[in-house]
Specification:
It is a single chain. By secondary structure, this protein is α+β, with helices and mostly antiparallel strands. The protein has a single domain, classed as Nucleoside Triphosphate Pyrophosphohydrolase. The protein is 18% helix and 39% strand. The chain has three helices and nine strands; from the N terminus they run E-E-E-E-H-E-E-E-E-E-H-H. The strands form two sheets. Strands 1, 2, 3, 4, 6, 7 and 9 form a seven-stranded mixed sheet that branches. Strands 5-8 form a two-stranded antiparallel ribbon. The longest helix has 13 residues. The chain is globular and about 55 Å long. The N and C termini lie far apart (45 Å). The structure holds 2'-deoxyguanosine-5'-triphosphate (DGT).
Length: 134
């Protein structure tokens, strides 16, 4: 019997670091995962490379021009009946001050506080990897 094809969603996210802290954004209400603290980023659009997609997302969400660094984590997770492929890039350099153009709130956090925050399951499942590269 033929099984149903899984739909995959590729998502790029930024590990933005400054003064030993990392930037998190709170997802807006009325959307997927409302109120959860996520790494800035989003879905790839057709025809974009992952780095181009992340540059675009960081401009749309934070109003910054970012230089996308190394790929630090590539992992996948079950997301409802879909699959999510998450690519985390290090971002150390940008111009402009991040503004919450999309998120309810932004905050710079010590990595030690991340486990106690309301974060997406996809991120919690990869928490050891995330903490080890921050
Ligand atoms: P939606 O409501 O699922 O269509 O998504 P959008 O348009 O609100 O959000 P977007 O473009 O940021 O898509 C990212 C998807 O990946 C979203 O469904 C939430 C999920 N996700 C899981 N962990 C993370 C994370 O750390 N950062 C981001 N940006 N998204 C994450």
């Amino acid at each position: 019997m033929k099984s149903k094809r899984v739909v995959w969603i590729p998502v790029v996210t930024a590990l933005m670091k400054k003064d030993g802290k990392v930037l998190l954004g709170q997802r807006p209400e009325g959307n997927t995962l409302p109120g959860q603290w996520e790494f800035p980023g989003g879905k790839l659009e057709l025809g974009e490379s992952p780095k181009e997609a992340l540059q675009r997302e960081l401009f749309e969400e934070l109003g910054i021009k970012a230089e996308i660094g190394d790929l630090k984590i590539a992992n996948s997770h079950k997301f409802g009946d879909k699959g999510i492929l998450l690519l985390f890039y290090e971002v150390l350099y940008w111009t402009g001050e991040p503004k919450s153009l999309h998120h309810t709130d932004l905050k710079w956090v010590d990595k030690a506080t991340i486990p106690s925050l309301n974060i997406p399951d996809t991120n919690r499942a990869m928490l050891n990897d995330i903490l080890s590269v921050l």
